[in-house]
Amino acid sequence: MIAKTALKNIRYRPLNTALSLVLLTASVAIISLLLLLQNQFEKKFSDNIDGIDLVLGAKGSPLQLILSSVYQMDAPTGNIPLDSAQVWMKNPFVQSAIPLSFGDNYRGFKIVGTTPEYSQKYGATLLSGTMFQKDFEVVVGNAIAEKLGLKVGQKFLGSHGDVEGGEVHEDHPYVITGILKPTGKVIDNLILSNLSSVWAVHGSHDHSEEVTDDHVHSEACNHEHEHSDAHDHNHSDQSSETAHAQPETREITAVLLKMRNKMALVTWPRLIAANTNMQVASPAVEVNRLFTLFGVGIQALQYLAYGIMLISGISIFIALYNTLKERKYEFALMRISGAGRFHLLKLIVFESLFLCVIGFVFGIISGRIALYVISGIASDEYKMTFSPLEVLWEEEGLLFLLTIFTGFIAALVPAIKAYSLNISKTLANA
Amino acid sequence: MIQTQSLSFSYSPAARFTFPDLRCDKGESLLITGKSGTGKTTLLHLLGGLLRPSSGSVSIAGTALESLSERQLDAFRGRQIGMILQESHFVAALSVLENLQLASWLATGNQNSDRALQLLAELDLRDHAAKYTSQLSIGQKQRISIARALITSPSLVLADEPTSSLDDENAAIVTQLLKKLSQEYGAALIIVTHDQRLKEQFTNSVVL
Q1: Is A3's Cβ below 8 Å from some Cβ in B?
Q2: Of the four listed, B69, B96, B129, B199, which is most buried by Cβ atoms within 10 Å?
């Protein structure tokens, strides 16, 4: 009955209630949105660097190199010659090396020339079809296939550059041979081909029409070179094979390296910067730097949200305190009807707590709606999606406790005032 | 039903009230009149256990109020005493019926809706059960106060100037209902007033 009365009291003063609710909702929404964003953002970033110790690429900003080659978010720093990259890829310190070559896109989705190891690294197995084997065969990331409705066997034309609307390469249609399973990582938004497809397409700019022949030629060469490969170094990278075919014209964009010897993580950046025209960057270090930059912004927003929470606490306090004057007869009357002091205390605390619980629920919901909207924008612009349905039990549980605590503190003084109300005096002055 | 013995109360050493001994039995009524400043409301608050007397004792239905703790007094008041005030106050956010239910629940832990509806019917207010009290006239509000005072079947009904803000017609109705219902529910009725209109209707009266 006390709870019911408290609810009715909240409803009876819609303006006070609305103000408190709006403030509470805003603060809870901002905090939960930030928690979710930060959490999922960091998870997304960390998931994608699993198994990548260093990235080898052209000189430039190391952060840009990491963003472009690991997260496919930024423009590449430039290309590097395959043969100079291979010096390092073959180094005994290296456990695995995955070359990447960018150049084209299909409707805004990057076509990445690489080796099948790339999809293995992300644990992306085939949902249907087969892995690319020949030139111009591609496998498509799950998110793209879903968004564009692509199926195995379909053909499409790539266009130059990494954004939509570049020059269309009409001579080289790609054939989809496979579609990957969803992984929640960047590979979902990539189209994968072998390296020589990329070289073939862009070779055609330089040498007009003879590319196809050129390519057949290079494939033929592969077989000849297989023997020399075997005694040279026994890695079966097809990129290195093709590289042997025409070393001077082959360029790649970056190499994802997993090191056998972790000492190299420390020594290689300086070593490579000093001796070559290339650089290596550590994704862990760069991402950390990025988080620190973000962290300042997120922290500022968080303080803002806690500020709003404080204001909503004050608003509840003022609303309860102000109505105390007009409600003291009501309270005296309840006392006459047999209510103990504790009943009144409970009534006021309940009113505040109800507001807080409702505000919390609204806030959690609107935070998720906001995340859904942001996810829509981010997936268009950065190929990154966030899940609004994730619940962070620990953080959001704490947020709930904080909200309840705010409500409790806000109710404290008015509740004590009601508790210590002098009935006789109140009624005598009526 | 109610009996007082050498009651006195002082707000300060200068303002000290001593009250004559009172007695009012079940089904009877007693009118206490007097000019303002003679302590009528103070006496009523002493009888209702809202104030503790400086000396003397109040005994209701065999229980001495001074023997009860604060908490016991709250419970006792809810069960045994119904109060009607000059200006009736209600929980504004609740409907008429819910106000009665709340009063019953606070006193007995039981909402007693049937009884509340029955009382409203007796007071000719059945149609207003779902309204907010702010939508009612003063006369109607005062009748609801009567219902609220009686819903717990108290042994004592205390009324503080129940008619002074009412017109003649409503004053007569309220007085009639008060007398009739407290008799019906077997409660002792004590009315404190300076309203001359009531004097003719009560045989028992004390002047302060």
Answers
A1: no
A2: B96
What's the Cα-to-Cα distance from B199 to each of A306, A364, B164, B166, B205, rounded to whole Å? 64, 65, 13, 16, 8
Task: Tell whether A175 lies on the interface with B, counting CB pairs under 8 A.
Answer: no
CB contact at 8 A, A183 and A98: no
The reported pTM is 0.75
Cα A197 → chain centroid: 30
Name which of B157, B174, B84, B122 is nearest B114 in CA terms: B122
Q: How many CB pairs under 8 A join A and B?
A: 82
Note whether A42 and B132 are within 8 A (CB): no
Phi, psi dihedrals of residue A277, rounded to the nearest 5°:
-90, 15
- Are the Cβ atoms of A338 and B74 closer than 8 angstroms? yes
DSSP notation for A58-82: ESS-HHHHHHHHTSS-S-----EEH
* CB within 8 Å: A336 and B79: no
* B158 and chain A in contact, CB less than 8 A: no
Asked whether the predicted pLDDT for residue A416 surpasses 60, the reply is yes
**ipTM above threshold 0.85:** yes
What whole-number distance in Å separates Cα of residue A421 and Cα of residue A427?
11
Cβ neighbors of A162 (< 8 A, separation 6 or more) are A75, A76, A102, A105, A110
Contact A390, A375 (CB under 8 A): no
Q: For B137-168, write each residue's pLDDT tens digit.
A: 988 999 999 999 999 999 999 999 888 888 89
Q: How many other CB atoms sit within 10 Å of the CB of residue A39?
A: 14
Q: Look up residue B188 and give its two tokens.
A: 């002792």
Residue appearing with tokens 């981010």: A378
Does B152 contact A338 at a Cβ distance shorter than 8 Å? yes
Q: Which of B86, B93, B103 has the CB atom closest to A337's CB atom?
A: B103
B68 in contact with A at a CB cutoff of 8 Å?
no
